[in-house]
Amino acid sequence: MEKKRGRPPKAQPKTLQADSQFAQFDADGDGVVSDAELMAAERAAELKAKIERWRNEDALQDRQRLIAMVAMLSTIGVIGALLSPYISLERMNAAQGFVNTFLVAQTGIVVGFMGASAWSKKKAE
Ligand SMILES: [Ca+2]
């Protein structure tokens, strides 16, 4: 390109490279990717990521709730079985150690779930 004398080079408008991934951000189709369009695209991407994060957290909470529910119901089931006439005292004595550990572990899961949900609720406020 020939250099003109006496005048400072005029700032040339920038163009996107061929098949640029930023070309899609020209929302109004005028061939110019404006700052506003770029910022709007960035905000939209952030919002999309945020919604995705919320969805994942929601699914995680659903799973944790299910686990806590299973722990609680299995505790109730074991106690119900122990109190039923179908289990002999002899067998109850034999399984005592296992049942104690099982009940404490299941209760721990339920308490952990309650604590975690109370904590995350407080954190969200
Ligand atoms: Ca535009």
Q: What value does the Rg take, in angstroms?
A: 32 Å
Q: Which overall shape is indicated by the principal axes computed on the Cα atoms?
A: rod-shaped
* Structural class based on helices, strands and sheet pairing: mainly alpha
Q: What is the first-to-last residue Cα distance?
A: 61 Å
Element string (H = helix, E = strand): HHH
Mean residue pLDDT = 90
Poorly predicted sequence stretches spanning 5 or more consecutive residues: none
Distinct small molecules bound, one entry per kind: calcium ion
Write the layout of secondary structure elements.
Blueprint: H1 35-83, H2 89-94, H3 96-124
Helix pairs in contact: 1-3
The structure holds calcium ion.
Calcium ion (CA) binds next to loops.
Keywords:
125 residues; mainly alpha; 67% helix; binds calcium ion
Structure description:
Helix 1 (35-83) runs antiparallel to helix 3 (96-124). This protein has helices at 35-83, 89-94, 96-124. Helix content is 67%, strand content 0%. It is an all-alpha fold and 125 residues long. The chain has three helices and no strands. The protein has one domain (23-124). The model has no long low-confidence stretch (mean pLDDT 90). Calcium ion binds next to loops.
Short description:
With 125 residues, the chain is mainly α. The protein is 67% helix and 0% strand. The protein has one domain.
